[in-house]
Amino acid sequence: MVSTSAFITSLVTSFLIFVVLVMIFAFLSRRKGNIPIYYPAILLKGRSPPDPNVVRTPWTWIKEAWEATEDEVVEIAGLDAAIYINLFTTALKIIFWTSCFCLPILIPLAATDKNNKLQAQDPEKSANFTSLDDIAMGNIQNKSSRLWAFLIGGYWLSFVTYYILRQTYKHVIELRAKDQSNVRAKPEQFTCLVRDIPPTAKNETREEQVDSFFKQVHPETYEKSKIVTGLGQASKLWAELETAKAKLAHAEAVLEQSKSKAAEDGTRPMHKIGKFGLYGEKVDSINYWNEKIKELTPKLEEEQKRSETEEQKGAAIIFFNSRRAAAEAGQERHSPFADRWQVIPAPEPRAVVWDNMHVSFYQRLVREKVVYVITFFTVVFYMIPIGLIAAFTTLGNLTKYLPFLKSIVNIPALKSVIEAYLPQLALIVFLALLPKLLLALSKAEGIISQDHLVRAACGKMYYFVVFNVFLGFTIFGTLFNSLNSIKQLTSAGAFSFNTVVELFGASLPPNATYFITFVALKFFVGYGLELSRLVPLIIFHLKKKFLCKTEKEVENTWAPGSFGYLPSIPNDLLIITITLAYAVIAPLILPFALAYFGVGWLVQRNQALKVYVPEYESGGRFWPHIHSRILVGLFVSQITMLGYFSVKKFPFVVLLLPLPFLTILFANICHKVYYPSFRFVAIAVASEEVKEVPTLSSVVAAFTPTCLLDSNEMNDIEKLDDSNFQDAESHLPSRSSSGIASPADGALAPPTV
Amino acid sequence: MVSTSAFITSLVTSFLIFVVLVMIFAFLSRRKGNIPIYYPAILLKGRSPPDPNVVRTPWTWIKEAWEATEDEVVEIAGLDAAIYINLFTTALKIIFWTSCFCLPILIPLAATDKNNKLQAQDPEKSANFTSLDDIAMGNIQNKSSRLWAFLIGGYWLSFVTYYILRQTYKHVIELRAKDQSNVRAKPEQFTCLVRDIPPTAKNETREEQVDSFFKQVHPETYEKSKIVTGLGQASKLWAELETAKAKLAHAEAVLEQSKSKAAEDGTRPMHKIGKFGLYGEKVDSINYWNEKIKELTPKLEEEQKRSETEEQKGAAIIFFNSRRAAAEAGQERHSPFADRWQVIPAPEPRAVVWDNMHVSFYQRLVREKVVYVITFFTVVFYMIPIGLIAAFTTLGNLTKYLPFLKSIVNIPALKSVIEAYLPQLALIVFLALLPKLLLALSKAEGIISQDHLVRAACGKMYYFVVFNVFLGFTIFGTLFNSLNSIKQLTSAGAFSFNTVVELFGASLPPNATYFITFVALKFFVGYGLELSRLVPLIIFHLKKKFLCKTEKEVENTWAPGSFGYLPSIPNDLLIITITLAYAVIAPLILPFALAYFGVGWLVQRNQALKVYVPEYESGGRFWPHIHSRILVGLFVSQITMLGYFSVKKFPFVVLLLPLPFLTILFANICHKVYYPSFRFVAIAVASEEVKEVPTLSSVVAAFTPTCLLDSNEMNDIEKLDDSNFQDAESHLPSRSSSGIASPADGALAPPTV
């Protein structure tokens, strides 16, 4: 357990680091040369970055982040970013309202009791408590009537959460609806994906099969189809070609520069063709790459043709002449058997995972199950190493097992620092390795859109961190720290539920301080780094100085990419879970959580407005995910409370029993009422008026993998005149004049019959 | 425990009863006067019943039931009846294939072992075994390698079930699709129900609100809407009016008869106006009823008008111009919030539960939960009385508690009869009281179609019978019968899982004989009564002789009604569950189950073809229900086996562990692949060609509650000329000529572009 001094040190040091980093940011972000690092989003949007001559105080960014409206955020950073920031807003609201009750009422109640003193005097128990433990529920004596206040706290916490979550869900749905019914229609709104197409009848091509099916089922709205084909070598060749082009440009730039300097015809750049240009014969780069391009281009085109014809899969993309029609088709069951003709709303073109499109129905079912099993085991059995980490990295144990450390450790300052950080650092390092694995697992499920992949991985990660960091550390940490608890467990024979709850309860409040430092570290240092972007900055300057020759290369070095939802969302959710779990038992955690999400809100808004550029939009599909995870957190916290109250021998603990059930009920209701509007676009929304309709050809082009988009095909698409599409648009008015409002211009006013 | 002699008696007596009843049927069904009882379906279909002069052997009905094809059954008795009979077919297949392994292999293995003997010799155990127990798994010695065969039996059973269930599900879906794409379109195929309509804006009527919304969302296919109104007094008044009319007809008929007999102007019938005509002043019936009618008719009409205008609810029925359009609308999410504008496919008009149409979204959610909780408690806490019944009604106990019975009981014949029947009768009587309660509960959930109501009630009933009859009897029966088992339980302190499994396992094989008699009784006597229809027959003749005067009255006395799915399906499913549970442990049950479902198959087919007339069609929606319940049965049986194998101390019992998980996986896959086609009509099916299209007016009329269908309204509907509808039909070809196949006549051939 962390001693008070260690606790303070940890806080102070983290805070100092934070201040320093913010200062660095305030200073560096003003310098002209760094603009691409601190305002890339603005640059890419073609808007002018802040004038470096205008003095920007360290508070300017805060002011700007604070003043931006949500619509601006959606406008600039996209719906998903806005949703992500809503996570912070929600957490802030929940924690704030909880604090209103817990801080002023529960802390005094705890502080004025004396359970810990009594415990400490008790010779049997080897209990040692810090002053921090005295303002937690642990300091309330068993069966004390003061526990009533904490019980009320539990209810307060739950209902605050329900209320805020409901409010936010509604708000988010409205944001989404606004985005969906946007007058600037997006290509995916006219598109559906078709999976599990049955084998073609003989003497019939895929196209014919698909077209005839959908022409019959959606006679008036179906436009055309595009069969999904395997990429085969195409993607590889395309990549090679791209690099070749880049290298050529680079080489030419080098030549140019050399000209300007020395001899006016300059020195032609050379390079070795072996790996990393380390060995092999030396060649003239420009000629070499020119040849490479000449050689690759035809190859690629040929490969593209081949895959188009030979690698057709049992999946297709179908296009409709109105948003409404596509929205309808995406919700409908087309074949009586679900394992044929599955039509689903299309994700953003950029987000399609092409190699998963043709995974067959049954494969998906099985893969899913298998992945779940694997995930389950990952989550459960990582617990042991983490437990060990938590155990060994408490300084006591370290010196116990590695006596030679004593000498170092005896330096008090150092001691407390190590004591404060060792465990957290161990954990953080460990967790950093996870996301890749989970992404791979999720992809194996056969998911077909990037955003869904990320969500799936986040879900797995969340359960992982909650189970291991939160539960794992609490329980194992205790086990290894107090021998008698191990005795307790072994004496109880089986790893029975009650003993675990008991133990868990018993070990909660001491761990509170641990988690507080955990939170503090994460937010001070984490956000400090996030804001100052030191790493990208350094990389940028190094590359720019030594590597980059062409404009494109420079751009690539500062290309910001999008928010890293995968590690951040589960971690933020973990913090919420921890906070909810300790809000009542050790209310001291609340102000730190408040700080975490407060600063987070500012920093992430700043990043959303100025730094990150979304790679694709999921239409805010992250919210149901976040919503239910927060509820899981609440559920965990309610169970925790049940455990701890029964440890406290509180006779009225049964009064807490309804809470978990309430949570389940609430989750269920939200799922029924709100979730569907994230699965599908409501017809009423989809049939609202559109102004700018993309041409069919542009929509088709959008849904072609880049490496298949060769010049010829582009021409094909251009040649394919947009008449049908224009028709679809043009002859709708004529219909509506005959008393039928057209889907596309379906005016809100009732049609003129 | 049932002694062998009692067992034999039970079988013999049941069988005799069965034979007698079949004879009665064969004899009575030939007599002309009974035709309305034995061939009502044929009469109502207007087809000629079998000529009584043609001699029908007792086997004729079997021949006919055997020879009828499934299509004939669907044609004559409707899809639901065919589905119900599929339950028997499936059970037969499963049980037959299981028998193929269990009877020839497991029984000999058990018979040649001698565990029971050893047990009986053991002085400590007060075990007594019958010769029946010797051919059950109980007779295998612990840890014996013979158990391997039984383990394989477990796997055989499971995979047979999976295979057959999958096969049947596919078959049923094809039946349903055939029915859905029938060229004779049904009114409900053009109709959807709308619930949770948001409150109207001011200065706008419900009609305007609904029409404007759907005209905008389904501009080309939406026809008209009909707001659901509360029935208020209308239904009551209507009922009174009907009775009045009937009474009048009756009285006139009486007068006629009296004329023909005595004085040519006859004696006018009189009756007292008090309750049941027992007291009050005497009046001339004809005049009295004439006045009543005169008085009621205007009242009703006025009430109808009132409800039409004043009792409008937040629900409506909407009509489309094509099956495809309605199928589409029924699957789509219309509002971004699920608690508004819920559009669902319409059930058959006759099946709509009008008073549930307007139950609000949140009310439904809450009601559902509440009902579930109530059901749960009903299921669990009925266990106690049933346990007591099972305990007291074993003769041993009876004499123990009521010594005076000894004298009677000592008569051996009587003794064994009582011994055989007491428990079963007690149970059967007890269970007969349940359905009403469950129906009421289900209705409280806010379900809006009769068929769904019945299904919901059946589901509850199934869990009830499995939990109470099967588990309840097995466990409690044992508890009360052997004192040491009670000791066992109490000594174990808590009602822990292991002890229960142990107990359960230990008490299984003895109970097998009990359940065999249970099955035998149910099928011999049950089907005997079902076939011979003695009760309806007697009632019919009595009423006809003494009460009925008019043709209508006579008809009412023999009106057959539809299959009583509510008590029968859960009971049949219970038999399946029991059979699956005992198939391996006491294979002797298999032949009886085979007989049960074999005879059941014949009898129910006969009833379907000749007797029952469906009140409404659910489109075979009963199958998913049956399917999943059979799987639950399999699951229970797998758990049971696990328990019993561990009682047998079989070291390789772990090999059975995968089975329950396999079952869950299988259930999950079926739910994903097949279930959706029962929730919705596939668009491909709905857009197949229709020949006979009902007129809009007739569709609207069909969806008006009878008690609101007064003459005026009928005229209104007639007046409302079908032009729009005809238009919708007529101007579709013109479209399709412009290259777009129309939804309604959407020819299967690809459109002529």
Automatic annotation (TrEMBL), chains A, B:
Segments forming domain CSC1/OSCA1-like 7TM region: 369-645
GO cellular component: membrane
Chain positions covered by the region annotation Disordered: 727-753
Entry's transmembrane regions: 6-28, 94-111, 147-165, 370-395, 421-441, 461-480, 512-535, 573-602, 652-669
UniProt topology in membrane: Multi-pass membrane protein
Keyword Cytoplasm attached: no
Acetylation keyword on record: no
Annotated localization: Membrane
Domain of life: Eukaryota
Domain CSC1/OSCA1-like N-terminal transmembrane per the UniProt entry, residue ranges: 6-166
InterPro entries: Csc1-like (IPR045122), CSC1/OSCA1-like_7TM (IPR003864), CSC1/OSCA1-like_cyt (IPR027815), CSC1/OSCA1-like_N (IPR032880)
Domain CSC1/OSCA1-like cytosolic: 189-356
Keywords associated with the record: Membrane, Transmembrane, Transmembrane helix, Transport
Family: Belongs to the CSC1 (TC 1.A.17) family.
Protein name as annotated: CSC1-like protein ERD4
Native organism: Riccia fluitans
